[in-house]
Amino acid sequence: MKTKQFILGVALSAVLGGSVAVGSYKLLEDGSIVSIEQQQQNPIVRYTSDMRSSNAIVPEGLNFIKAAQVSTPAVVHVMTEYSGRATARGNSPMDPFLREFFGDGFGERAPRGPQMGSGSGVIIASNGYIVTNNHVIDKADKIEVVMDDKRRLTATLVGSDPTTDIALLKVDADKLPTVRYGNSDDLQIGEWVIAVGNPMNLTSTVTAGIVSAKGRNIDILRRGNDMAIESFIQTDAAVNPGNSGGALVNLNGDLVGINTAIASQTGSFAGYSFAVPSAIVSKVVDDLLKYGEVQRALLGASIREIDASFAKEQNLKTLNGVYINDVTENSGAKEAGLQSGDVIVAINGARVGKSSELLEQIARYRPGDKVKVDYLRAGKERTANVTLKNLNNSVELVKRSNAEPIKFDGATFEPVSRQELSKLGITGGAKITDVSDSEFRDTGMKDGFIITKIDRFQVKEPADVERHLKNVDSGVVYIEGVYPDGLRAYYPIGKE
């Protein structure tokens, strides 16, 4: 009896256990279905607060760690200030006389409040030389840079070149981190690069992309400047306002370009950005340091692109190269025997398939340098050795004059700083002080006025004021210039 009861108990226990298991499964199954449905209807978003360390190793050459570590400390935030400037109602030789009746405020509008701007810069020398874009600091009253270590330093403008949109700044500091130059010629389409800068005031931002194209002409510098050089590196690294003047580096952290522009209809990044190649940057900086001015070499020929229709029209045998429309008299191209109709295909062995590439190659040289030009004439390849010249068809280099202050007729005339020249958009002048003790006091001229022209003569430096005024025998001489706030003015001065 006991045995039968035991066996029956075991059987009942097994049946009960199986029922509980099946029931529990069904409950869990139904619960999971409900949970999924609820999740689909009401997605749950949570913070991912688990701290987990990753031991994954990205192969060398596929990550950007080294490049970021090398370049980020040497990229600075460039802060600019533009003070409110009074502007003139209009300028005419009658203004001095009208001002005599209506007072010194004649023609002056109320000044606007100060405005701020920002961009980026790259330290290229440990003693404080910084490269940026010309448009970042153009016409700024004050320039400061914020270092990666948060130090804030005042910067002075060493020089600038609007034709390449490059400017050189100097801060009073030493032992600074630097980025070394890389060779932009070695960049390959599809190669990884990173952009380092300060977009939207987000300091030390690093973005990555690939080289999308080289030698790109986007007509951003040529507006009003026929001498501009455009041969940009195009990338798809994200660049936004504030990145201008920042570094474009390769995976070694070497500087291969200065980020300059974006292709956008909104003002923000829309897929492509453009950088000035380091080959151009290094030459411009070297010129500014050695000569104070950029030494621009010219081939001496007007050129144009070759497309299929033009090649057919001119019966050309190639679509690769740059067509010569005409050559300038007394130019290097003329003296070397180049002619209208020739097609230039290489400069010193570097192939040039379009105008931007040709201009970039020539921009690397100075007046007086000789280059080997490979070209096609009637389908046959030839070579010419061209001596490059400057805009005046001379091989002379232009050096910034070391202008000295002078005293003349009781006033002191001082040279104008590079920063003031850039701010006011002038190429030279002489700043007057001590007006109240001079022969100029009766004109209404005030201290700080920068003389840029005396009659038809340009004033580039203080010595020009004395030279031009001494040559005037008698009569009224008109002096033209500008005040530091941007107000332009004319003053008559009588000579007996």
Summarize the structure.
The protein has 10 helices and 25 strands.
Describe the structure.
GO terms for molecular function: serine-type endopeptidase activity. It comes from Pontibacter diazotrophicus. Keywords: Hydrolase, Protease, Repeat, Serine protease, Signal. The active site is at residues 135, 165, 244. InterPro entries: Chloro_Bact_Ser_Proteases (IPR051201), PDZ (IPR001478), PDZ_sf (IPR036034), Pept_S1C_Do (IPR011782), Peptidase_S1_PA (IPR009003), Peptidase_S1C (IPR001940). This protein is of the alpha+beta class and 496 residues long. It has four domains: 73-171, Thrombin, subunit H, CATH 2.40.10.10; 184-291, Thrombin, subunit H; 301-387, Roll (Pdz3 Domain), CATH 2.30.42.10; 406-495, PDZ domain (Pdz3 Domain). 22% of the residues lie in helices and 31% in strands. The protein has helices spanning 2-41, 65-71, 95-102, 134-137, 278-291, 308-314, 332-335, 355-362, 418-424, 462-470; strands at residues 75-82, 115-125, 129-133, 142-146, 152-161, 166-171, 192-197, 205-216, 232-235, 247-249, 255-263, 272-277, 301-304, 322-327, 343-347, 350-351, 370-377, 380-387, 406-408, 411-415, 430-433, 450-454, 457-458, 475-482, 488-495. The strands form four sheets. Strands 19, 20, 21, 22, 23, 24 and 25 form a seven-stranded antiparallel sheet that branches. It has a six-stranded antiparallel β-barrel with strand order 1-2-3-6-5-4. A six-stranded antiparallel β-barrel has the order 7-8-9-12-11-10. β10 and β11 (255-263) form a beta hairpin. It is globular, with a radius of gyration of 34 Å.
